[in-house]
Amino acid sequence: MKKYRCVICGYIYDDAVEKVKFEDLPDDWTCPLCGSPKSAFEEVKEEQTNEKEEVVEDDEDLRTLTNEELTYICSNLAKACEKEYKEEEQNLFLELSKHFEEKMKIVEGTLENIKELNEQENKEIKDAFSTATKLEDRGAKRVLTWAEKTSNMTKLILDNYKEKGLDYIKNTKIWVCDICGFIYIGDTPPKVCPVCKVPSLKILEVK
Amino acid sequence: MAKFHAYRNLKICTKDCLCLFVCPTGAADNETGQIDFTKCIGCGACANACPSRAITLIPNKMPSQQPHDEKVVKALFKVANTKIEQIKILKGLLQNTKEEQEQKLYKALIHANKVGIEDLMREAGYMLPESKNTHELLEELKEKTPSKKEEIIKLLEKLEVNE
Q1: In this complex, do B79 and A128 lie within 8 Å of one another by their Cβ atoms?
Q2: Which of B102, B118, B123 minimises the CB distance to A79?
Q3: Which of A84, A163, B42, B59 has the fewest C-beta atoms lying within 10 Å of its C-beta?
Q4: What per-residue confidence (pLDDT) applies to A51?
């Protein structure tokens, strides 16, 4: 008897309790919690617990922040002001964010490049998680847990889009969780975000 | 000085107005719909009484944000920058397509990456607008960004450093 875990939301499919073995499920079967395809499941190996705990060294010095980094530092601080109900400060930070975003360069590329960067990102997230584990930084581990799931999700979306083309997104809505970045393709988003567990009112339809 | 002030979340407030009954200073009752912060003494009576939990007590001075080791900060920035590279390409792809559904997919991926980067920045030392870190950043930007100097000075004045 085997167990399988959804890499997006963590749902466990246990052959021991289900009527149908995972292997025998049809190819178009989807995760009951988040709607991800069958390919998003990986077998749960019990000895998987020995988390690697090493600090990944990076000798690059802290340098001046780029316009892109400033764009998102400022938009994040605007969100923080919103949470504290500081509307004027929120708008000032948004103004700054816009200023830096206008300087951002657009790069020519393809979805293949995005796929490569997504793979690189996934590896960097795992390295960062090891560093955060070793240094006992729970906050960083939290953001990286969400980041890993959304990066797995991006991979699935890119794979599906490559395979099925426009049919994959035709006649359907696309949604993004405004808290963690989870993307859902379908008519009605899940009641709760499968990655960060926020209620669906924070899952926004892309217009 | 009061340690907290009450804030009414108008998206949730169901106008039961119990806060008006229990507020000892009349701060909860005024024509703007918001609490009068100058009258509020931060006692929390309104927040406790509110049936829809629409009132929050916010500290006037936030505690220091959690420290992060430089190695963790570097690792988080690395992930953020790989996401930034994706946004740069996605923005180009978005400009070059007329197909509406394809545009939506690119917009979704841009939004998802943006949200992710913002969260990474939060854990990389920029959680609180009142933090020393943010203050130092603004001081630096004040000189380097002359066209936004006015806005930056306003932020420096309004955001009192909490540590």
Answers
A1: yes
A2: B118
A3: A163
A4: 54
Chain A residues with CB-CB distance to B116 below 8 A: 146-147, 150, 180-181
Cβ contact B116–A118 (<8 Å): no
Here the ipTM equals 0.92
Class of domain A171-207: mainly beta
* B111 or A63: which leads in pLDDT: B111
CATH assignment of B1-60? 3.30.70.20
Q: How many residues does chain B have?
A: 163
- Check if B86 contacts A (Cβ < 8 Å): yes
8 Å CB contact of B90 and A114: yes
Pick the closest to residue A70 from B74, B134, B92, B72 (CA basis): B134
Distance, C-alpha B158 to centroid of its chain: 14
* Highest-pLDDT range among A36-40, A48-52, A96-100: A96-100
Using the structure block, give the residue that is written with the tokens 């379908």: A186
What pLDDT does residue A185 have? 93
Q: What is the DSSP letter of A37?
A: B
- Element at A69 (helix H, strand E): helix A67-83
- Which pLDDT score is estimated for A61? 52
Are residues B4 and B42 in contact, defined by beta-carbon separation less than 8 angstroms? Answer: yes
Element (H, E) at A184: strand A183-185
User: How many whole angstroms separate alpha carbon A35 and alpha carbon B132?
Assistant: 43
CATH number among 2.20.28.10, 2.170.120.20, 3.20.20.100, 3.30.450.20, domain A1-46: 2.20.28.10
Tokens of B129: 């607008």
Nearest Cα to Cα of residue B142 among B157, B128, B161, B131: B157
State which residue of chain A sits closest to B57, comparing Cα positions.
A84
Domain boundaries along the sequence of chain B = 1-60, 70-156
Specify the pTM. Answer: 0.88
Q: How far apart are alpha carbons A177 and B116 in whole angstroms?
A: 10
